[in-house]
Design goal:
This protein is mostly helical and about 325 residues long. The protein has 15 helices and no strands. α9 packs across α11 (about 220-230), α13 packs antiparallel against α14 and α14 (about 275-290) packs antiparallel against α15 (about 295-320).
Length: about 325
């Protein structure tokens, strides 16, 4: 089951915030959250619909310490207030569904739990809503545990693997005088670009094109663009967990950087390969994981349609 996002003019973010606060309170129900659980929860909440950057920051603040019983009751009361009108209730249920199905699938057990939430919402009964949240969140966190090592993998990628690659290319990272936070930020940008499949293209060609495109779209200084290009071609970049990489990049990025990355990927595909469905899917996935609104992505889709339209359509017809 996949719900269509309802159209709500004024209350989308407040509904998502109300749902997210109750979810965090449920996660803190036993008073303890491990670092692993915190990372996974941040991944899940990052995918909540319509949350702004400010809303995501509030969620991060709430995750730092246990939620008191009084706070939990206040959050439940706030959610109840969002279930008073049919439109707001519909969107709150949509947000709950997106949280429970944050990896894109819903098991039969999770569907049954979602159905219970629907009944409670329709009856405006929030007395047991916190407990209902706890079980699907625990199951979702458990399902993400095989990926729990991704944070360690990302740290090794940023602070070891990219540096080793730079050394092999006879470039001194320390000479660039980058703070560790900037080094991580640029490495994560490279890891996002690495999601674009470029079969048969030599690494030097990819690095040159990444530098050109970053200079074109972001006016990025050459040393930093070079560092991103090294990260984009460092072995293992493409296998890092995309959701976690995107979330951590998002937290330190500007809107201009997020808008530019799909265009950089488009430039690479256009310049280096015969782009088709595989490249288009990758670019759309990058945009989606960076939470780009459709209005920011539409001009790029138009450019894709003009340049790749016929070829992509032929590939899609061949697959079908």
């Amino acid at each position: 089951m996949k719900l269509n996002e309802p159209v709500l003019a004024d209350h989308r973010e407040s509904c998502s915030l109300a749902v997210a606060r109750v979810a965090i309170a449920a996660a803190w129900a036993d008073g303890v959250l491990s670092d692993e659980e915190l990372e996974c929860l941040q991944d899940l909440l990052y995918q909540m619909p319509t949350l702004s950057t400010e809303g995501l920051r509030e969620m991060q603040r709430l995750l730092r310490s246990p939620i008191s019983p009084a706070q939990r009751e206040a959050f439940l009361a706030d959610l109840k207030s969002h279930l008073s009108s049919r439109d707001a209730c519909e969107f709150a249920l949509y947000a709950i569904h997106e949280l429970i199905a944050a990896d894109g699938t819903v098991t039969s057990e999770e569907q049954a739990l979602f159905d219970k939430i629907v009944v409670m919402a329709n009856e405006a009964d929030t007395s047991a809503l916190s407990a209902v949240f706890t079980e699907p969140l625990a199951r979702r966190l458990f399902s993400l545990r095989p990926r729990a090592g991704q944070s360690r993998d990302i740290e090794r990628f940023v602070h070891q693997h990219v540096r080793v690659m730079a050394t092999r290319l006879e470039l001194s990272v320390s000479a660039w005088r980058m703070a560790p936070t900037e080094e991580e930020h640029l490495a994560l940008m490279g890891a996002m670009i690495a999601r674009l499949p470029l079969p048969g293209v030599l690494m030097p060609q990819i690095r040159d094109e990444v530098v050109r495109s970053l200079r074109r779209h972001l006016k990025m200084e050459v040393p930093r663009a070079v560092y991103v290009s090294i990260a984009a071609t460092t072995p293992g970049a493409e296998s890092l967990d995309l959701l976690r990489v995107a979330r951590r990049f998002f937290e330190g990025s500007s809107e201009a950087e997020r808008r530019a990355l799909p265009r950089v990927a488009f430039d690479l595909a256009e310049s280096l390969v015969r782009p088709g469905v595989e490249q288009l899917d990758a670019i759309m996935n990058i945009a989606a994981n960076l939470r780009l609104p459709q209005k920011d992505f539409e001009p790029l889709l138009e450019a894709v349609g003009e340049s790749w339209g016929e070829r992509v359509m032929q590939e899609m017809l061949a697959v079908s």
